[in-house]
Structure formats: C-alpha cells, structure tokens
Queue: 4 jobs
Job 1
Amino acid sequence: MLHSMASVVPGPWCRVSSVSIVLLGRESKLDAVTQKSSPPLAPMAVFVLPSLAGVALFLTPVQFDDGVTILLAVLTDAIGSAVAPVHELLLVTVIAIGAAGALLWPFLRTTHLGTSTLARRCFAVPPLWIALRTLGALIALCVFLDEGPEILRGEETGVAVFRDICMPIFVIYAASAFLMGLVTDYGLMEFVGVLLQAPFSRLFRLPGRAAVDSVVSFVSSSGVGLLMTIRQYELGVYNAREACVICCSFSVVSLPFALVIAKVARIDGLFAPWYLTIVAACILAALVISRVGPLARKSEDRLVEYGAPAAAALEGENVLQRALRAARTRAGRANGVGDYLRAGYEAGLDYTFGLLGPIMTVATLASVLVFRTPLFDWLAAPLVWALQLLAFPEAPLAAKGFVVGFLDQFMPAFVARGLDAEFARFVVGGLSVAQLIYLSEYGLIVLRSRLPISFLDLVVTFAVRTLIVTPVLVAGAFLVT
C-alpha cells in the first residue's frame, strides 16, 4: 500500500526519507514485533546522547542577535551567509534539475540511472507533479533572468516566493535532512510517546500511541506524521474517527518549516515564544475538534481488524521505565553512522528536488490571486469590519491572512510579511502553522487517501480551527510584542 500511495503523492510527502519508511512500515506494528522478538536494548548512551543533541538543536531556545530562536536557525543562517554569493544560481539549478529529471525520467529509466533507488525516488513522479515542477522551474528562471511575464516575476509574487520562501527552505531542509535523525532515529519520540499515553487518552479521546504520530508531526515533518496515521488506519490500528481527528489536529508543519514561515513573516526574532504560542493554540484546537464538528462524528469502524495485542508494561515497571525501554529498543534498531549520513544525503536530495519546484508554482500562483486579483479582498471583507471593531492593526490587509491559508500554508506568512505592526505579524504569521488545513499539500494527501474526509469536512475544520486558534495567538502577541 505504501508503494501505491507513493505513486499518487510523490516527492518528500511520501518518500520523505528512509526514516519515514521505518516509521510507516515498522512502527505501526512495534508492539507486536517487540513482544514476539524482544530485541536487545541499546546502551543508554545510544538513546541519550543523540536525543540530547536533537533537543539542543531543534527544541532549545537561545538568545541570538537580540532575539530568541533555536540553534538550527543560527546554523542555517550561517550556512545561508556562506553560500549567499551563489545562492540564487544554486537554487534555480536545483529546481531546474528536479524538473528536467522528472520530464526525462521515461528515457532515463532505460539507462543505468533506472536501477538507482535514489534516482527513482527523486524523479519518478506522476504527471501532475511533473507539471508543478516544470512550471516552478520556468517561474524560477523568469525571476533569475528577470525576463518573462511581469505578473509571475513581480516583487510581491515570483521574486518574493523565490527569495523569501524557496531560499530559506533550500537551506533549512538541506540541513535538517542530516540533523532530524537525531530526533527521530534514536528513541526520543518513543520515549515522549509512552510518557504522553495517558494524557492523550483523557484529553483527546485518542489511543496513547497517537502521541507518537503527533510528536513526529511537531518535531519532524507533517508529511511523515500524516502518512503514518493514514498507514495505521489502513492497518486497522486506528478507527475512522481516531484517524481523522489525528490527521486534522496534530499534523502541524515541522519545526524547520515553522522556522521558514517565521522568517517569511519577519517574526523569527520571537521564534521561541511564537512557536510555544502556536503549540498552545493547536492543543486547544485538538481538544475541541476531538469532541465537536464533523470529524468527531465519524464512525468507529476500522478498515481491517487489528489483531496485534497492546504492549504491556513488564512486571513492576513504571511509566518512566517503560518509556526508557521503548526508547532503547528503538535506538537498538538505529542505523550506523554511514547509513545515517547516506539517509540524510538521500533525504536532502529528495526534499530539494521534490519540494522546491512545486512550492515555487503553488506559492507564486497563490500570491498572484492574493495580490493581483480582488478575489481574497471580497472573501475577507466581512473580517475587515470585525478586526477594525477589535482595533486590530492594519485590518484591511491582515484580514486576507485569515482566509488565504486554506489555499496554501505560506500565504498568511506572505501577507504578514507586508504588515508593519509586529503584533499583526505575530498573529497572522501564526495562522500559517496553526490553521493546519491547506490544499496545496495537506489537502491532496488527505483527499486521495482512504480516510473518510470530504472537501466540506476540510472547509469546516479550517473555519473551526481559525476561530479557536486566533484568540490564543492574539493573547500571545499581547504578552510578547
């Protein structure tokens, strides 16, 4: 089933990395495998040292340049500065290679490249995604050469997408491809998942193992978390209601992507409090969505009967001991240094070839709709009055940020970029992450999966989430701006 999904949803969304394949294929049956084979536990250091490094890089706030950020941001800024003289040329080359490889794959697959798993992973994509990559490459060339239709290479359309979205993504995803394994490969998520089992059951009406899906989405990749949940629904681990709630509550964009959005929205100087506010908003939204709305009323049916028994604690074992055992078991299956680096290299190529072209296409076309047509002015008109009543800064422009996120996750941040008030940028930029439901990536994956979620379900859930998360973002903005 994983291969059939990969043929529908290509690129980094399905074939994110070898880590995602492990998560999708193995972790869904971890309990049964653990009980049957009882793999030896890794030494504690194999779990602790990489996990501490991952926490330091991705989750620890640091003071830098009169702002609060994370170490990954400091590292990627340094890399970006180092490659700045050739950044634009390097970016347009990568986008062009991604498009050319996909276009020429029918011919390349008959050569020695056809036997390469990495080449197939990067270039064997369906026609829709070939078109997205190709159009993205053409737009990138228009911007780079300053030629072609002005509407596609304008300062607020193609140029802004190329420089303010694709360039940060290029650097951050290339770096995180090598570093994210510190969080995902050595047991940190299993450790957190076991500790959060009881609260997940009580707070969200979800099984404890959903904590792992959720942690994956928050600290690794929303694509990985989303596909993990879909896979476990197909295996019968989750029923329809559980799978729908998990997908529409916790598949939030990853930390690296949140950092990109913060940079686009010009709020990266307050990244740590901004991101913590988003986490609080998403938890509140999950509490509500798991109990009300169309997703909470989905059936309790399963696609197939899941026969694996639930993992039980060993005699006399408390929850912390069980979490450590789960973490050390996962660390015991982690790759060696060579395989780890190779997986990072392959994931980095997959990210850059598969992601940058489609983002260039979708974000540019969305920005044309937002900034060159009155469509979203009409849709946001009722919100302008409400925001003005609440004395929200720059209400006419900010109002568009509340509705454009349904089209593409970058658009609220793109709107926020043009706002002068830091308060408004904090709130509108936060919507890029907290609204969660957007069609350009998330919607395509969900609607083409076997989950019983309709387009109307997505629209209603988007509206409900916006109503829930906005007051939390406003409160956070009051406290820190």
Job 2
Amino acid sequence: MTAIRTADRRRRSPRGARVRIALVIALLLLLEFYLRPSLIDGRGMPDFLILGLLLIAIRQSPGQAAVTGLVVGLLTDVLTPAHFGAGMLAHVIVGWGAATGRAIFFADNLLVNALLFFVGTWVRNAIVVLLSGASLSQLAVELLVWSPLQGIATAVAGVLLVLLLRDWLAIRIEA
C-alpha cells in the first residue's frame, strides 16, 4: 500500500512531470534532427518539432504557448532562413491556438489529439506558404497535397507517442 502511495505521489509531483516532459521533448528533438534526416527526407515525413510544440502547448496558458511557439519558430527559421519570420509567426499562432483550444476540446481523447496534430501541422504549413509569397499553383499543391500528407504522418507519429508514453505525458485516453 505504501509503495502505491509513493508511486502516486511521484507521478503527481510537478517537478517529476517537468522532467518527464523534458525527456519526451529531448526524444522528439533526437527524432527530428537525427532520425528524420537519416530516413528518406521527404516533405511528407512527420514533423517532430510541431508535435513537441503541440504537446507542450496543451499544458500551458495561451501566452506561454505563444512564447514556446516563438522559440520553436526561431529554431526552424534559423535552420531554413529563406523566409525568416514566417516560421516564428506560424508556430506562435499554432501554439496559442492549441493552448486556447484546450479549453474547448477534451485533450484526453485520442481522436482529438490526432486531429490536433493534423490541424496544427496543416495550419503551420499553410501560414508559412502564404507568407513565403508562393504562386497560386504552389499554394494549392502545398495545401492540398503536401500539408495533408505531413499532417497525417505527424498525427500517426503523435498518436503512437501518446499511446506509448501516456503515463509520462499524463494523458488519460478515453475511447
């Protein structure tokens, strides 16, 4: 009985939760910068940075999520400086939207999580393409082909991550 109480206390401790989330984010960064380039680097590959942003954003206030989005966007803009600032704005909007949406939707539902990962990826890609000054045909191909493919891949990766690490992420999965 004492071991159960200790395990419950450890699982509920804010410091322990932060450490677990930090380890999950470190895993996502490893996947993004080590595993993803090792695989076929296609535009339909899952985006682990946006996945990390969304997992953090649903646990934060909208302001904190926007700042987190700014940091993630700065990181992506530094790596792809062709349209500097577009990634920052896109990630700020997605982070703020995910944190705000948490009040409306139940984050404990697996389908809602998958939809959040898909929509977050698609919206981020749409904003970046719109701000990059792409032609109408490029915009259509991005919004109708590549963004949905990447959104689906990111949603599948996110659902697998949530299922595997739901105790660490403190997400109760309801059917």
Job 3
Amino acid sequence: MVCLGNICRSPLAEGILQQLANNKNLNWQVASAGTGNWHIGQAPDSRSVTAANKKGHDISQQRAQQFKPTMFAYYDLIFAMDKNNFADLLSIATSKTEKSKIKMFLEIGDVTDPYYDDKLFSVVTAQIETRCEQIIKEFS
C-alpha cells in the first residue's frame, strides 16, 4: 500500500487489509510505504489512528517508511493510493514484471488524501475498508 507520506492512507490500508486477511487465516504479508521521505519512522497521523480505532482496527504500532525498489521483489502486488503515486512507482520500476505488480488501489479514481481536512478521515477509512474487503474476495 503506497501513498505520499505513509502516515494517512497507506497505513489505514495496511492495517485494515492485514487484519481482514488474518481474520480469514490468509498467510498474507501486508505493508505500506510512502513515495516521499518526510515521515520516515513516524507513527501514523493521529487522525488515521482514531478513524481506524472507530472501525475496530489498530494501526498505532506502524511506522512510516519510504518505498524502496527492493520491495518489488518481496511483494506480489503494489497498490498506489492515487495516480501521482502510481506514476512515481512506475518510474521506480525497472522491468515489465515490476511494472505489472503496480495497481491502483481503487478500481476507479484516487483515494482522497485527508491530510488537510479532518472531516475526510472517516470517509477515507470507510472507503479503504470497503476496498480491502473486495481485495480479500478477489485474491483469496
């Protein structure tokens, strides 16, 4: 799960998808990262933590990391939260195989970055949770 800073959207997607996978006894390794390096080592935004908690998900122990090219070899799929991060990931990929792993998280459109609008965190969390449920059905 990849967004810009790895403190809002992608930690939500990581935590929700990992919990749903665990609940289904799927042996999935889910991680998140940012294309930017501003927040490396930081916990998720407190508003993401709160929104996740309200939906029964704990993301408080995650720490932000920057996407590294070596992640292409480790993960089967790389989900981008928006078109800009999708393009950034494509520019990092060095082979057709790596490029084929990159997908948009939503089938249509971007996951809105809630960073500048507190009201968006609950909306984005619900949107991510719905899509994670679809991903479980699609890939399990």
Job 4
Amino acid sequence: MTRTISLQDQQFILHPSGAIYWPQQSLLLISDVHLGKVSHFRKFGAAVPVSAIRRNFEMLGETMAFFNPKKICFLGDLFHSYLNGEWAFFESWVQSSNLEIILVSGNHDIISPLKYQALGIKVVHEWELQGFLLTHHPEERTGFYNFSGHMHPAVTLRGKGRQSLRLPCFYLRKMQLILPAFGAFTGTHVFEMEQDDEAFAIADATVIKI
C-alpha cells in the first residue's frame, strides 16, 4: 500500500519498494540500488544467493509497471562498484524500458559516464527541478527542497520488554527527504528522530507513518 504526501504544493507517492513517484512530472525517484553488489561479494566468497540479482530487476519492473512513468531518476549508487556480469542485465533492462533515464551520480558510481551515455542515460551531479534539488548526499540549499539517498535510513520500533524491529523508511527533515535504499542487498542506518522529523516506514509491503 502506498502513501501520498504533499511537499511544496506538489504530490508525491511513497511506494513500499522505496521509490517515490512525482505525478506532476511523471517521474520515478529511486536511490541506492547498488546493482552489481551481489556479484561483487560472491566473487570474494560471500554466500549471497544469486536470486538477489534477479530480485533487484524484478522490483524495478514491478515499480515501473505500477506507476508507468515517463522518466526515472536514480539518486546515486546505481552500481556498487566496477563493471561485472550484472551490467549485461542492466543493459537489457534499459533497452526494454523505453523511458528517459537520469543518473545523479553517487560515491559508488565509479563506472565511466560514457558507458551510461552509450545507453542513452544522462549522468549529472545534481538536478534542480521545479524548486526541488535532487542529489545523492543530503544537502541544504536555500530556496530548494532536497531529495537524496546515500544514508539508507531506517527506524527502530520497540515493543514490550526487549523486542525491537528495524524497518527501512523515508526520512523527512525540514526541507529534506531521504529515500531508503532500493536494492535488495543493502544495509540500513537507524536515525534517532528529532523534533519535527517524520518517518514513513516500510513494513509488509505497506508504507506507514511513524
């Protein structure tokens, strides 16, 4: 189940995959997919199931089918490291997607921009759009509402006794929204909520306000 919020007189739909859809722009925002990470870790002996590779692309396909956007913007860390076998899967996905793709480069995006450009993908350091600033690292800039990733935000819910549950979340601060990591094989960083902060956690394929 999705959750719709209003920011700067614009509507945004939070999806349980970790993506955000901006209807007025027909734009899908996704951060920290970390494609290639599974293959990277398997190369060095980590017992990561191959199915995790397929899951990332399944999630991309499912989310795109749900919203049917005209554009998609990756807010950094699309690929985890250097080229590996997952690039071929990515090429096939791009060629079948038939939509405009923008990559806001992140600290893990070390693959040459020329490789992306050859697929028709525009690579930028940041993107200013309708009073919104799209970046990888969270930023504060006068006059802009910032969408970013990088932090892999999560919150911890505590029950009676010592019970606790860590959930990825969309984390909202003043003039700033940090997206959860989209990738199926990524960690999380727990935020301690401060006054006026908001969090929308992802649990059981549902986005819930904390």
